[in-house]
TrEMBL record, chain A:
InterPro entries assigned: TPC11, TRAPPC11_C
Record's subcellular location: Golgi apparatus, cis-Golgi network
Sequence similarity: Belongs to the TRAPPC11 family.
Organism, scientific name: Strix occidentalis caurina
Lineage: Eukaryota, Metazoa, Chordata, Craniata, Vertebrata
Cellular compartments per GO CC: Golgi apparatus
Trafficking protein particle complex subunit 11 C-terminal domain ranges (all copies): 1036-1094
Major localisation: Golgi
Presence of keyword Plastid: no
Name assigned to this protein: Trafficking protein particle complex subunit 11
UniProtKB/TrEMBL annotation, chain B:
Identification of the protein by name: Trafficking protein particle complex subunit 2-like protein
PANTHER family, A to Z: TRAFFICKING PROTEIN PARTICLE COMPLEX SUBUNIT 2 (PTHR12403)
Protein localization: Cytoplasm, Perinuclear region
Keywords tagged on the record: ER-Golgi transport, Transport
Family: Belongs to the TRAPP small subunits family. Sedlin subfamily.
Top-rank lineage group of the source organism: Eukaryota
Length: 1127, 109
């Protein structure tokens, strides 16, 4: 875009840098010079000093310096700031001119060269006559210089050269053309920078000296000008603090100027420039709040300074530019690291800029609505001789005139007219949209979604004014949903109204219909008459006619659109529009509702569709159809009525196909579900309402699911919360709010009309064939066909249970692990009405615990629904939890022949195995038999026969057995397997001939120890007083060694005895020694025998304690026979 | 001073909105709606900072508001909420509330 009158000049917006010109460099043909120049200007990074360099020929003519004014007494300034001044000091008048000259210290023709150099310096000086510009000389040398002081010739010649050129030593530099060029250049430019700073310092001083000569009456403008210049020079000197200070002073001075309509623009222009500089410097100093404060002050001061009323749009343009420029500065500062916040970001300034741009447009349309016969004045009052203005902000046709009186009112009129005519051609919308989109980008960044939407609405409206309806529609359509979802109906209506105009003007049928539908809907805040107009238009469109134009549209655009509409009418085809309504709020509301959450397959599925129109006039529709997830049902749910085209406007509300505003219409549908759908969900996937007809235009309103649009969920929530009592309505009417959508229903199987009963005797006993009797009885009126029974462990329980549970139909044999846990689909045949069927199921549970069993009976039956015969599958199931328990507890223990508990047995010495079966079953048990299966290492002492055969045990009763065993010596110390004990049992209950269960009990291991000597006594079972009692002790050597044995008998009070009282003897391996004693009991009763002590010399561990296990210690002594008292 | 008074539901739709110069109603509606950006931000910041949750006044959205006015408006709103016939979330249609809002707007004119 070309810069307009309102854009700031580039020299104002750039960063001022010291201006240094380089002369004597031939950058085109001399490679060395080229390299020097490149080093100066290429890759200038931020750390290099801020200088702008320019290469100029040695004889360049610099701008002439005007003669210095000695007195300001008669001087009257013609304006505030000349348009060329900033550019002059940035790009034309250097702070320093550098003369490059190739000269080595050992130059043979020194004299000639020296004078040539002096001449060059002189030429430059001539051109800068009257200026304070510094001159410096750089000698380009081929040789590397010696360290300072060592080269005598060099210092001599240097001072000679300085003299010749009239230079101070500080202004003469040597640039050796060696490897380190860039390093030398950086040092050089630093030196240049110092010179430049001195120059700008003297310039500031020079301007300041003028101040003394000024007086406040005639030189007011000069105060501003000088202050501005000082500030600008300070900036060139890179003294931004002072620059800011001086700009601030300048700003205050501008506002002190006498303002009048004629110079208002000049004052505002300068105020704007200075304000821009201040804000820019504040941001640069990282004091953004100062910048914002200054800007606010600036706006407050200037807001009312409108100037000429006929050119009021200029003020708006100027204001817009102020905001835009500040926004740009702010944005730039953010890019350099400043952080902005939600409530203070550049977006607000762009938004204000856009606002003023809109105002400018309005003012322009008001002030510049000249008749087309008005022609642009000739000669052009805006032309100046030079093509540019002398001073910023002045009128071209009266430059430099300070008088507030208009000397030539006619000229003024022409000038204003030409400005107005120029403004007429400005593309305002383009400016506004650019600013708005800038603002949108900012607000997006600072989390202001609503502000963003608002600005986008404005952009859309601006596009509408600019007649770019397609773009307008795109933007409006994009933001519409935000307002809809937040429920701001007023705003939504306003946006929709504009969108409707756009779609009308473009003859976009679908959009036009969509917006009309919503503007007629309940979210629209339009007045009834507007709604009525829109509805009539909509009906026209449905009848394939052109609608009436929307109000307040551009006449030319309306004309164009009418032609488009006419084309549309003649165009055949593509006249069916499907509009998905769930994303907006149409004027027809829909709610579909199944009468129940589930239906049995043998009753018809019923549902209602409620429709309600919110438009002002009744509306007819041609068709209502409902779609389901199973499309086979679609055909049953259609309401259709062919009607004549002429009927459409008829006000009658009699027809079923007519929706009366405010009234709820109900349509009831009924269909028979398919038997395949049993267990499935029937869902309404969409409801379609067709407006218009195939012959005209057809609009399909499509509700996804069971109805509802963008606003209904919130409405439903409010209705649910409400306690309000609704007024009573006639029976056939319902309250719309109280209706809820129910878009799906389940199809469930027909209620079975059979009974299933289970008979059994819990709990089950481990491993038995537990009998469960299933009784099925039909209560159906017809034959139940194909009855099938599924019985067994209910699936979904612990996996281990499946392994340990078997089910069978045959109860006579015990089943093994290969049997299944569930018997599926056992065919039972047909069941006649009233017939009863019994089926025993046998279950074997291998482990204890609770199990759930399932009995599931299914059958087929024919029924008639709505005159239609269907084959229904019915089923009934029963579950039962059965506990399994152990039938009995078996305890096993080892005892010695003296019935003493043994924790280990001795090799070859007989011991007893005792078993104890304790019934834990609540039912009586019959022990059929028991069996002891000994392992190879055990031998029975006598016959092993069962003592519990056919014993019946009631709960808590126990049965015991005892076996005498012997264990040959073993080497294994850890224990010897005994064998197992098998109990064969069954329930005593006389149900069936259930098989006998064999329960195997593994007997515990026993530790076998060998002993060196075994003693057993051979004595009668009782004695009699004073009758001899012979006792024979057998001492058996169980070792492979000869045993030395000491045997002694301790006397007892109750006995006299004869025999060896104390003896020492030897027993050979494997043999036994017999010791015979004759005891003579003295007393009756249970008496202690004289105790035998055996001492083995080789086995000191063999104690009498051990011995006591084998031999008796006491004996019962009876009285003498003749002593028994006679009875 | 007040030129526009609005009560907004927590779902961000207006329960009540009224402005004095009725011809510029739309502009005020937009202003109120855009100021919800700041409300949203302040409320989300409040959750983080754990400031006193009982303090319902969010502070200034634009530098023209008045705390006393908020109290008055809020009291009146509380009265409405206490009305057993009012269903929370419905748009407010109340003569008492209208009168109170009028009195607040009157102060300007």
């Amino acid at each position: 875009m070309t810069p307009t009158q309102w854009d700031f000049p580039v020299e104002l917006c750039c960063r001022p840098m010291a201006f240094v010109t380089l002369t004597g460099l031939d950058v085109v043909y001399n490679a060395v010079h080229r390299a020097v120049w490149d080093a100066f200007c290429a890759n200038r990074r931020a750390d290099r000093v801020p200088i702008s360099f320019k290469v100029l020929p040695g004889d360049h003519e610099y701008p002439k310096c005007r003669t210095k004014r000695t007195s300001y007494e008669w001087y009257i300034p013609k304006g505030i700031l000349k348009t060329g001044w900033m550019n002059k000091h940035l790009n034309l008048v250097p702070a320093l001119v550098v003369v490059f000259y190739e000269l080595d210290w050992d130059e043979p023709q020194w004299k000639e060269k020296q004078s040539e150099c002096a001449t060059r310096v002189e030429i430059v000086r001539q051109s800068l006559q009257g200026r304070n510009t510094k001159v410096a000389v750089v000698l380009i040398q081929k040789k590397t210089p010696l360290p300072p002081g060592e080269d005598v010739i060099a210092s001599e010649r240097a001072s000679a050269l300085c003299n010749a050129c009239d230079l101070s030593g500080k202004s003469l530099f040597v640039l050796p053309h060696t490897d380190h060029l860039v390093g030398y250049i950086i040092r050089l430019e630093n030196a240049f920078y110092e010179h430049a700073q001195t120059y700008y310092y003297t310039e500031i001083r020079r301007v300041k000296t003028h101040k003394e000569f000024l007086n406040k009456t005639t030189h007011q403008l000069l105060f501003v000008r000088h202050q501005f210049k000082i500030a600008f020079f300070s900036e060139l000197k890179q003294d931004t603090q002072n620059a800011l200070k001086n700009y601030r002073t300048a700003y205050n001075l501008v506002h002190e100027l006498r303002a009048h309509e004629t110079n208002m623009l000049e004052i505002k222009t300068m105020a704007g420039f200075i304000n821009y500089k201040i804000c820019r410097l504040c941001f640069q100093h990282n004091t953004p709040l100062d910048a914002i404060a200054q800007f606010r002050k600036h706006i407050d001061l200037c807001k009312k300074k409108i100037g000429s009323a006929e050119l009021a749009f200029e003020h708006a343009a100027w204001m817009s530019k102020q905001f835009q420029a500040f926004g740009d500065l702010f944005d730039e500062a953010i890019k350099l690291g400043l952080t902005a916040i939600q409530t203070q970001n550049p977006g607000f300034y762009y938004q204000q800029a856009a606002y003023y741009a809109q105002e400018r447009k309005q003012l322009a349309s008001m002030l510049c609505n000249h008749d087309s016969s008005v022609i642009y004045p000739n000669p052009d009052p805006l032309e100046t001789q030079t093509g540019v203005l002398d001073f910023y902000g002045q009128r071209p046709w009266r430059q430099g005139i300070l008088s507030f009186d208009l000397s030539d009112p006619e000229k003024e009129k022409m000038g204003i007219l030409s400005l107005q005519l120029k403004e007429k051609n400005v593309l305002h919308s383009e400016l506004i949209i650019t600013l708005l989109s800038n603002a949108v980008a900012q607000f997006k960044k600072y989390k202001c979604p609503r502000m963003k939407s608002h600005l986008m609405v404005q952009m859309g409206e601006e596009y509408y004014y600019a007649k770019d309806y397609a773009k307008a529609l795109k933007l409006l359509d994009y933001v519409m949903c935000e307002y809809r979802s937040e429920g701001w109906w007023t705003l939504l209506t306003s946006i929709l109204t504009t969108a409707l105009k756009c779609s009308y003007l473009m003859a976009q049928l679908k959009d036009y219909i969509t917006y009309s539908l919503e503007l007629l809907g309940r979210a629209s805040t339009l007045k009834e008459d507007q709604k009525s107009r829109i509805e009539k238009n909509l009906i026209k469109v449905l009848m394939n006619e052109s609608p009436d134009p929307e109000p307040d549209c551009d006449a030319a655009a309306v004309k164009a659109s009418q032609k488009l509409w006419a084309d549309r009418v003649s165009l055949a085809g593509s006249n069916v529009f499907t509009i998905e309504v769930q994303d907006f709020i149409p004027f027809v509301q829909c709610k579909a509702k199944f009468l129940a959450p589930s239906f049995h397959v043998d009753v018809p599925v019923q549902f209602d569709v409620y429709l309600r129109a919110d438009c002002p006039h009744p509306i007819r529709f041609s068709k209502l159809c409902i779609s389901f997830n199973n499309q086979d049902y679609n055909q049953y749910c259609v309401v259709e009525e062919a009607y004549q085209k002429s009927d459409i406007l008829e006000q009658s509300s009699q027809g079923t196909m007519c929706l009366v505003p405010g009234k709820t219409r109900k349509f009831t549908f009924k269909f028979v579900a398919k038997t395949e759908d049993v267990g499935k969900k029937i869902e309404i996937t969409s409801v379609d309402l067709i407006l218009g007809s195939e012959s005209g235009r057809c609009v399909i309103l499509n509700w996804r699911g069971g109805g509802g649009d963008a606003a209904s969920s919130q409405e439903a929530l409010q209705a649910a919360r409400s306690f309000r009592r609704r007024p009573k309505l006639p029976d056939n009417e319902v309250h719309w709010d109280s209706l809820t959508v129910q878009a799906s229903t389940m199809i469930i199987s027909r209620v079975p009309n059979i009974s299933v009963q289970l008979r059994h005797e819990p709990p089950a006993l481990t491993n038995e064939m537990y009998c469960l009797i299933v009784t099925v009885q039909s209560h159906e009126e017809t034959v139940a066909k194909d009855v099938k029974l599924t019985a067994g462990l209910k699936p979904g329980q612990d996996a281990n249970l499946t392994q340990k549970t078997q089910v069978t139909l045959r109860g006579t044999d015990t089943c093994d692990d290969s049997f299944p846990a569930l018997l599926p689909d056992i065919p039972v045949g047909d069941l006649q009405p009233g017939q009863k069927l019994e089926k025993p199921i046998y279950i074997r549970c291998g482990t204890v615990g609770a199990r759930m069993f399932l009995v599931y009976v299914s059958y087929l039956i024919n029924t008639v629904v709505e005159g239609k015969e269907i084959l229904c599958k019915c089923h009934r199931d029963e579950t039962v939890t059965i506990e399994t328990v152990f039938p009995f507890d078996v305890a096993v223990k080892f005892v010695s022949t003296k019935l003493e508990h043994l924790d280990r047995v001795f090799a070859d010495i007989p011991f007893l195995l005792m078993t104890d079966i304790l019934s834990a079953s609540p039912w009586p048990l019959t022990i059929v038999t028991s069996q002891l299966q000994l392992s190879a290492s055990m031998t029975p002492v006598d016959q092993l026969e069962s003592y519990v055969e056919n014993v019946v045990l009631q709960t808590g009763e126990s049965a015991s057995e005892c076996f005498c065993l012997r264990c040959p010596p073993v080497t294994n110390a850890s224990g010897v397997a005994t064998g197992c004990y098998i109990i064969s049992w069954k329930r005593s209950s006389p149900v069936e001939s259930v098989p006998v269960v064999n329960t195997v009990i593994t007997l515990p291991h026993v530790i076998v120890e060998s002993i060196p000597l075994h003693v057993n006594a051979d004595l009668p079972s009782f004695g009699r007083v004073r009758e001899s009692l012979p006792v024979r002790y057998h001492l058996q050597n169980k070792t492979n060694l000869v045993q030395d044995v000491e045997v002694s008998v301790e006397p007892s009070d109750a006995f006299m005895f004869s025999g060896l009282k104390q003896i020492r003897l030897r027993i050979l391996p494997g043999t036994q020694q017999e010791m015979l004693y004759n005891f003579y009991p003295l007393m009756a009763g249970y008496q202690q025998l004289p105790s035998l002590h055996v001492n083995l010399l080789r086995f000191p561990n063999f104690t009498n304690q051990l011995l006591r296990r084998f031999i008796p210690t006491h004996i019962f002594v009876k009285v003498r026979l003749w002593e028994v008292p006679c009875v | 001073m007040a030129v526009c008074i609005a009560v907004i539901a927590k779902e961000n739709y207006p329960l009540y909105i009224r402005s004095v110069p009725t011809e510029n109603e739309l502009k005020f509606h937009y202003t109120v709606h855009t100021s919800l950006d700041v409300v949203d931000e302040k409320i989300s910041a409040m959750g983080k900072a754990l400031v006193d949750q009982r303090e319902l006044y969010l502070g200034l959205l634009y530098p023209t508001e008045d705390y006393k006015m908020f109290r008055k408006l809020h009291n009146s709103y509380t009265d409405i909420m206490c009305n057993p016939f009012y269903n929370p979330g419905d748009r407010i249609h109340s003569r008492a509330f209208d009168n109170m809002v009028n009195s607040m707007m009157m102060q300007v004119c």
